[in-house]
Design goal:
2 copies of one chain form a homodimer.
Chain A: H1 2-27, E1 71-72, H2 75-97, E2 102-108, H3 112-128, E3 131-137, H4 143-155, E4 161-164, H5 174-180, H6 192-199, H7 210-221, E5 230-234, H8 241-250, E6 254-258, H9 265-269, E7 274-277, E8 295-298, E9 302-305, E10 313-316, H10 321-324, E11 330-331, H11 338-357
Helix pairs in contact in A: 2-11, 3-11, 7-8, 7-11
Organism (chains A, B): Pisum sativum (Garden pea)
Catalytic activity (chains A, B): (6R)-5,10-methylene-5,6,7,8-tetrahydrofolate + NADP(+) = (6R)-5,10-methenyltetrahydrofolate + NADPH
GO molecular function (chains A, B): methenyltetrahydrofolate cyclohydrolase activity; methylenetetrahydrofolate dehydrogenase (NADP+) activity
Chain lengths: 361, 361
């Protein structure tokens, strides 16, 4: 078993060396280039993690904690509590000003996971009384089709939140289309101004992206102290890893982002009091990655084939649950942890947006 | 001497506890509040570091490296090389299109350090042939006065870069005034859109803030490998700490930000291969904060009274130079390290801006 771990680490190291060589080729200055630093665009490389062996092949190294079991946070239960409060406020809003929050969703294509996520969001809206509308576009639609849909919702006063379900098909210009969403309705918080204002102290974005907001709410509701603690965020995606790191820092954690280019990710992660994993790699985070007593928030949701499930697949997290539960003090399950809370934060953002746009307090 | 260190650490710990209590008082949800997470604005607390004892009172713990001496990076020399290339390109531009880059500086009040910085920037512009213009306003001027100056330069086609010298007097609305600088002329890169695009992978800001850009250029020119390495940025200011951490991450370092709320900052810092200190606290970073062989970039420039100097004061960095030089492999001095390179990056940004605005390649 030890051999498996070593082999995997060697793979990761080789992978890193290859990527590093690639980086070096980017660095050579061109003749008319004043600086040696390359342009940022050329630095963007895919964060490819080497596939991980099945979860049970490496035992947790903290054998003395084999009997310990972490507290499992129930994202569904917390969501139900919050959604009940949202429903109350939506009812009050309807009674007082005759209006309810409106959420518009743009879905391009029929990716199975995207269809499921959109369906869950729509059901959640219905539950709390938020009006929702979905525009479905074919996979081969043009940028202009998506942009027109965005523009229509930008102008519609009954719509207080607009979300473009990601990922978009590769031929579409995601950057341009996300930028087209009017800032006041950007309930996903993906606009660069919202991200810049999340990063800058002394400023406040109109919206905090839903998954990072869900992670913080889970931590606070579970009584986990954030200020002063060491936090590791695994993965640096624009929609989860990056904004989660910025938000944890605003809560005064000492934050490190671990990514596919990190040397010894297990060592760095094992120093953290709080680990948020959002790499999208099943079973990446093993028992030996976690400090005894740490809090582990698992954002990963990778579909894995499973004929015993209704849809033919099940969702698995980044965290090897059976190993980590023996080491951590608090853990979120997949499914039923961050997922429902993320949808709930979307409802919160939509409600907040409607309040702001209707000048309703 | 050991006692001094322990006393200081106890102070820091007490200070942290006080601040943490304050944070807890912020956390209690109000009756109509749906989430337990506080608003971001209420999280903003000043990063106050406890004053540090003089540099020579705690010896470096790495006694075996007492004889080692780090390579000192010469920021002036590197700057001279880069400025010579800038001057060439400005001459070429003048010859080819009859225009030179133009930089406008707005200086409010007569803070001694700000006056010095502005003077250095103007001299540097003259050296390379960039046209510069300074608008000086009295300390008690109104927001509208600064805004008018910004607007005038926004419209002036001979101005390709605008910088508002910070810090502004407290009564002015820094956020509003920085946002007024037109994005295409924001050579300081402080606009939230520029910051958001620096943070988001797949995007590229029009300008990278000058000090972070200087740090990366220093590292690359010195042959220090960044990708995959552990980097610690000390301090999380909007103008240095935050963008430096984002930029190091875009260069694929594994980045941790250490701030005044970090527990055991010396422990976290001592794990880093690259340390960039931008706390503005003289002698904060001692020999025992640094891993043997690490690279140390000192961004701190605090004025300290010294009657033997011409101006009655001298600038000191965050790093206890005489201790750290025995442990690190590479170090920047203060003055003569990051300072001149920061001004040089301003020249690069102004030139790049002029090229972009004049469609000149």
């Amino acid at each position: 078993m030890r051999l498996v771990a070593i082999t995997w680490l060697s793979c990761l190291r080789r992978h890193l060396q290859t990527k590093t060589r690639f980086l070096h080729t980017l660095k050579g200055p061109q003749s008319d280039q004043i600086l040696m630093s390359p342009t940022l665009a050329s630095l963007d490389l895919p964060d490819i993690w080497t596939p991980i062996s099945p979860c049970h092949s490496i035992p947790a190294i903290h054998k003395s904690f084999n009997e310990q079991t972490a507290r499992i946070l129930d994202g569904k239960l917390m969501s139900a509590e919050i959604r009940s409060k949202i429903a109350d406020q939506v009812r009050q809003m309807k009674k007082n000003v005759g209006k309810v929050p409106g959420l518009a969703v743009i879905l391009v294509g029929q990716r199975r996971d995207s269809v499921t996520y959109v369906r869950n969001k729509i059901i959640a809206c219905e539950e709390v009384g938020i009006k929702s509308v979905v525009t479905e576009l074919p996979t081969d639609c043009a940028d202009a089709d998506v942009q027109n849909a965005v523009m229509k919702f930008n102008k519609d006063p009954s719509v207080h939140g607009i979300l473009v379900q990601l990922p978009l098909p590769q031929h579409l210009d995601e950057e341009k289309l996300l930028d087209a969403v009017c800032l006041e309705k950007d309930v996903d918080g993906f606009h660069p101004i919202n991200m810049g204002e999340l990063a800058l102290s002394g400023r406040e974005p109109l919206f905090i992206p839903c998954t990072p907001k869900a992670c913080i709410e889970l931590l606070i509701r579970s009584g986990v102290k954030i200020a002063g603690k060491r936090a590791v965020v695994i993965g640096r995606s624009n929609i989860v890893g990056l904004p989660t790191s910025l938000l944890l820092q605003r809560h005064h954690a000492t934050v490190t982002i671990v990514h596919a280019y990190t040397e010894n990710p297990e060592q760095t992660t094992s120093e953290a009091d709080i680990v948020v994993s959002a790499a999208g790699v099943p079973n990446l985070v093993r028992g030996n990655w976690i400090k005894s007593g740490a809090t582990v928030i698992d954002v990963g949701t990778s579909p894995v084939k499973d004929s015993s499930c209704e849809d033919g697949y099940r969702l698995v997290g980044d965290v090897c649950f059976e190993e980590v539960i023996k080491v951590a003090s608090v853990i979120t399950p997949v499914p039923g942890g961050v997922g429902p809370m993320t949808v709930t934060m979307l409802l919160v953002n939509a409600l907040d947006s409607a309040k702001r746009m209707l000048n309703y307090t």
